[in-house]
Design brief:
The protein has about 375 residues and is α/β, with parallel strands linked by helices. About 30% of the residues lie in helices and about 20% in strands. The strands form four sheets. A seven-stranded parallel β-sheet has the order 7-11-6-1-4-5-12, sandwiched between helices. α3 crosses α4 (about 110-125) and α7 (about 260-270) packs parallel to α11. The relative contact order is 0.12. Bound molecules: flavin-adenine dinucleotide (FAD). Flavin-adenine dinucleotide binds near residues 280 and 317.
Amino acid sequence: MGTYNNMDLDAFKNVWVFCEQRQGVMMNTSYELISEGRKLADALGVKLCGLLLGDNVEGLAAELGGYGADEVVLCESPLLKNYTTGAYTKVITDVVKEIKPEIMLFGASNIGRDLAPRCAARLHTGLCADCTHLDIDVAQYIEFLKENSTLDIEKQKWNMEDRNLKMTRPAFGGHLMATIICPRFRPAMATVRPGVMKKAAFDQAKADAVQIVRPAFELAESDIATTVLSVEKAAREIVDLIGADVIVSVGRGIANDIEGGIKIAQDLADELGGVVGGSRVTIDSGWLPSDRQVGQTGKTVHPKIYIALGISGAIQHKVGMQDSECIIAVNKNSAAPIFEVADYGICGDLYKVGPMLLEAIKAAKAAK
Ligand SMILES: Cc1cc2nc3c(=O)[nH]c(=O)nc-3n(C[C@H](O)[C@H](O)[C@H](O)COP(=O)(O)OP(=O)(O)OC[C@H]3O[C@@H](n4cnc5c(N)ncnc54)[C@H](O)[C@@H]3O)c2cc1C
């Protein structure tokens, strides 16, 4: 292995995305990050590489190419079949030390959140967790600030040549956005929450053109402190909030009749072919399971239709749903902040408005 000096910034090149597969199935987040990584690599004029670990997973490489990867750095071993922190950390840090990427992105999934900080600590570099926006180009970053911040852009001094990765994430409970750079060490590392970045269109020509690189690495059973005995799928069906076209979410407004409120949301979701989500209150109170939470500490969603029933629209909820194509809010308080982001706001009692909406949708469908 070559000498590894992570302060020699010029020795580091290319953007890498850790591509997470489970039991040979690629996680959607990997495609989102590859799509985002493509933009960063183009801004830097470098290659975009997917880093893929597993056993017999070469078949997934073309898919990554189709979403924008030039190259897939492939590490295969029976010892990498199931995710273990020890094995993945060792292999990733070894290949990073050898090949020296300048940027590394991980999905903020359970695995990404476990793996990225370990790798960052071993590589002695910085990691910005839960990013919601990434930039290289300063002019583009300024455009982003103009739309999303109250900063007086003209009064700031800008180094337009700066090529650091600008990693933006919510801070102070979502009330502020902070942009973080890692100017002295490489690779600059970030985790990005699933659903935040948009997946590019799949391109078969790019999929066919993807290059596969197989770096040498060493991995022994003694490197792995844990043994995976079996992988059990959760018996309960996990709802795919991120991929849903229609989400009907409930909030504390259903407190007076929880079952009734959830039924109204479920009936609407069934009629529209959607799923039921909720604000954090509904998860913390045990009314809905945790995979249904929308918001800063839940899922970031952008469905075609988002219906909010009895949700006030706290900033931490809004950051997770405000990019939905059409937002319909039902709240009995006309001053509720949810109405600021709603395309259609209905001021009223959800127990009355919900069933009326359902009947109206049924009637509209019948009239078609
Ligand atoms: C670090 C941090 C992270 C957080 N992460 C998240 C997150 O990921 N997601 C999230 O949602 N929250 C999150 N929160 C919590 C957030 O700040 C709010 O507390 C939460 O979103 C409020 O949920 P709510 O809108 O359901 O409840 P409330 O704010 O209590 O609002 C209930 C609303 O229902 C309306 N209502 C009541 N009865 C009816 C009725 N019968 N018909 C119609 N309307 C009615 C009321 O007018 C009110 O507007 C986070 C907070 C912190 C500090």
